[in-house]
Amino acid sequence: MKTKIHTNLAPAAIGPYSQGLAFKDMVFTSGQLPLDPSTMAFVEGGIKEQARQSLANLKAVLEESGAGLDTVLKTTCFLSDMENFVAFNEVYTEVFGTDVAPARSCVEAARLPKDALVEVEAIAFIK
């Protein structure tokens, strides 16, 4: 049976989807935009600030499910401009490190919801 994951510490869904779903000992998150959950507005700044917020939102959804950043197996990262790849990687490395970083795909998207610079989703296991 799948279980809906919802936390007020991450932005509410802006469409017909869940923040995440758990199935058995796995959790699948929706893409997390760089929205401040209290205002539903983008954080100020550029790619680094938006990346930090997207990853903080991802962390909140994971923790609500019983998982965490340390249990992430795979991420998919969407960038609005591949010119931001190096700066995004700097923030991503702050969060996940390099020793046992999750498997990852990182692609440029023609356009992200609300014209975000970044969106990140994950698959993780529940502790």
Compile the SSE list and pairings.
Layout (H helix, E strand, L loop, with lengths): L1 E4 L14 E4 L2 E4 L17 H19 L6 E8 L5 H12 L6 E6 L9 E8 L2
Parallel strand pairs: 4-5
Antiparallel strand pairs: 1-2, 2-3, 3-6, 4-6
Helix pairs in contact: 1-2
Question: What would your notes on this structure say?
Answer:
The structure is a single chain. The chain is an alpha+beta fold and 127 residues long. It has one domain: RutC-like (60s Ribosomal Protein L30, Chain: A). The protein has two helices and six strands, in the order E-E-E-H-E-H-E-E. A six-stranded mixed beta sheet has the order 1-2-3-6-4-5, covered by helices on one side. Strand 4, helix 2 and strand 5 (103-108) form a beta-alpha-beta unit. Helix 1 (47-65) runs parallel beside helix 2 (85-96). The longest helix is centred in the middle third of the chain and has 19 residues, at 47-65. It is globular and about 40 Å long. It starts with a strand and ends with a strand. The mean pLDDT is 97.
